[in-house]
Amino acid sequence: MKKIFAFLLMATFLMSGCGVTKEVKADVVLPPNDPVEKILQTMTLEEKVGQMMMVGVYGTELNDDIIYSLNAFHFGGIIFFDRNLENVAQSKKFAEDISAAANQKLPLLFAIDEEGGRVARGRHFLEVAPSQEEIGLSGNFDEAKYWAIHNAKILKSIGVNINLAPVADVGSRDTRSFGDDALTVANFVDAAAHGYESENFLYTLKHFPGIGKSKIDPHQEVSNVEDSKEILDAEDLPPFKQIIRGHDNSNFMIMVGHLKYDALDPVNSASLSPAVMTGLLREELGFKGVVITDDLEMGAIKNNVDLPTLGVRMVLAGGDVALVCHNYESQQTVYNGILNAVKRGEISEERINESVRRIIRLKAHLS
Question: Which one of 124, 143, 167, 191 counts the least CB within 10 Å of its CB?
Fold first, then answer.
């Protein structure tokens, strides 16, 4: 099945000219004989919904809980934490065993937060990059590219195929930002993007539309950003704009955070906001790739929204992948919420197909 996937997706890239990154074409429904459509047509609704979730697991080797989750819910992505990582050989075997147990039509995404500095996994056996703040203070854009290449190589060695980095936020005070100036940060993020792409490695910009102005840790509670749209355009969005407009959108995901932005949508967190994910990210900025939420178990979101509706609202707002990092029951609840919403007609299957098409194009780089 993986050979068929690789063949079909290579044909997709040859047809679409994905080596050219200056112009991003409109995201349209493809003709029935298109390779992406052929893969989509082989998938059940349950498999499609599973592709729209990335989940955490427990343990350092394959176990019955993981096997059950993969077969019952068809989860398309796994995020690793230190709880899963002992050394290079164990980590790589763990990823390989999970892939084999999944036996899916599409390869699994294996993700990790390897930003550098204080946010890095496996630091007891991997060489951790400097923080993005430290790289930014160097003033040398090539440093960002160098450490992105470094991250890509070490993550490949442990079976991970997408990094939930770089951070594209401007001016965050926790060493995770490249700096306080939007254009400077944009250039550092751009250099990092080129580094990942030179290794044919997937990456993620976070946390759209920028959480540098956050006053509260979103792991605990929601925070409001009160700045005008004009200020957001000038001070927070440039790093995202530069990568969206200058790179093949199928090479990376964009992670949407849980803050509220009064000028965009004073009611909904960004990760549940049609105004942010569809109006701003898709329509205004033209992003055609995969949109993933920040962890839906963070206090900023789970303390304010009923868990069974989280995935539904994410999909209706324009998101593609729900990230649920820790609790197996929560993962299943979010999955069933989306699936049941489709079955009762609240979400159309064509809306699900839109997301899965984008996920297939992203996963084409894994073949």
Answer: 124
Residues 6+ apart with CB under 8 A from 172: 211, 212, 214
**pLDDT value at residue 5:** 53
Domain with 334, as residue range(s), is 50-347
User: What are the backbone dihedrals phi and psi of residue 8, each rounded to the nearest 5 degrees, phi first?
Assistant: -65, -40
Q: For 342-352, how does the pLDDT look when each residue is reduced to its tens digit (9 = 90+)?
A: 999 999 999 99
Q: Report the distance separating Cα 262 and Cα 224, nearest Å.
A: 7
pLDDT tier at 146 (50, 70, 90 boundaries)?
very high
The total of structural domains in the chain comes to: 1
- The pLDDT score that the predictor gives to residue 21 is 32
Q: Which residues pair with 224 in a beta bridge?
A: 260
Q: Is residue 114 part of a domain?
A: yes
Q: Is residue 15 part of a domain?
A: no
Domain membership flag for residue 234: yes
CATH classification of the domain holding 313: 3.20.20.300
Residue 29 lies in a domain: no
